[in-house]
Amino acid sequence: MDSWNSTTLKALSNVFGWIAFCAWSISFYPQVILNFKRKSVVGLNFDFVVLNLTKHSSYLIYNASVFFSSTVQRQYHKKYGSNQMIPVAANDVAFSTHAVILTAFTLFQIAIYERGNQRVTKITMAIVLAAWSAVAICVFIAIPKHWWLWLVSCFSMLQVFMTVIKYIPQVIMNFKRKSTTGFSIGNILLDLLGGLTNYGQMAVQSIDQHSGVNFYGNIGKTLLSLASILFDLVFIVQHYLLYPGKKAERSPSLDQVNHESNVISSHNV
After folding, report:
1. What share of the chain is helix, strand, coil (3-state, %, to 5)?
2. Tens of pLDDT along 149-177?
3. Among 86, 132, 205, 264, which is most buried by a count of CB atoms within 10 Å?
């Protein structure tokens, strides 16, 4: 049970997994450093960060539960077969833990740095409230029936939902401003590398096991990688092709900050 057929593929899976961990973990720092250097968070969409915190928090709950809980693992094997490998690796738990910490720190930067009139929209707050309310309902349903695998899968699907929608506010902001100034492209390039290697780790494991269970048994991780890759490509197109003249700009002046903030705020009313 949980055994590899090929030591080579096992080693390759570990390499892919830890590359994904490093890329995704490091991807948080370019934005944090950019915010620190500019002493401003204008250009970084606050909705993106709030949705990202919800996404990573739910992903951490899922990863930690599947990786550490023997009860959840037993239910997984009962559903997908006792010979199937647990689809969560140590690098998944390490990444999601780090992600929650760094996203929370980015929110702290939003609180202390120049932000003009930008704010978290009511729509985002409503989405977050609705998401956690739905999960709370799932908890009450799962507890009496001991549906622990189903419950953690609910957290997994929540992170997939948040992954899909969290990028949209930033994409729209870049489009309206016709600029990616204030939003780090380094974050996106590393995120793309993490998505590709994360998907590669799952593919290697499936090849070794001669089974596709690893993909649909952890559909959250599969969709996470695909959604991340898709939106990363959108940001790359915006930064390098659509608005290339903006990428080399230094921190905007105070007048530019106030102008951009007013424009953004007018769209969020």
Report:
1. 80, 0, 20
2. 999 999 988 988 898 898 888 899 899 98
3. 205
174 and 234 in contact (C-beta within 8 Å)? no
How far apart are the C-alpha atoms of 32 and 98, rounded to whole Å? 14
Angle between helices 148-177 and 219-237 (to 10 degrees): 10
Residues 6+ apart with CB under 8 A from 146: none
> What's the pTM?
0.75
Helix axes 219-237, 185-209, angle to 10 degrees: 150
Comparing C-alpha atoms, which of 240, 170, 185 is closest to residue 33? Answer: 185
Q: Which two tokens mark 187? A: 């974050």
Q: Provide the residue type at 67 as one letter.
A: F
Lowest mean pLDDT among 8-17, 48-57, 215-224: 215-224
User: How far is 63 from 221, CA to CA, in rounded Å?
Assistant: 10
Say how many C-beta atoms besides its own lie within 10 A of residue 214's C-beta: 23
- Tokens at residue 237, please? 């197109």
Question: CA angle 92-96-102, nearest 5°?
Answer: 145
Reduced to 3 states, what is the DSSP secondary structure of residue 40? Answer: strand
Tell me the per-residue pLDDT of 111-140, one tens digit each, with 9 for 90 and over: 999 988 889 999 999 999 999 999 999 999
Beta-bridge partners for 114: 40
Q: Positive or negative, the Cα torsion across 219, 220, 224, 230? A: positive
Round to whole Å and give the CA distance between 222 and 232. 16
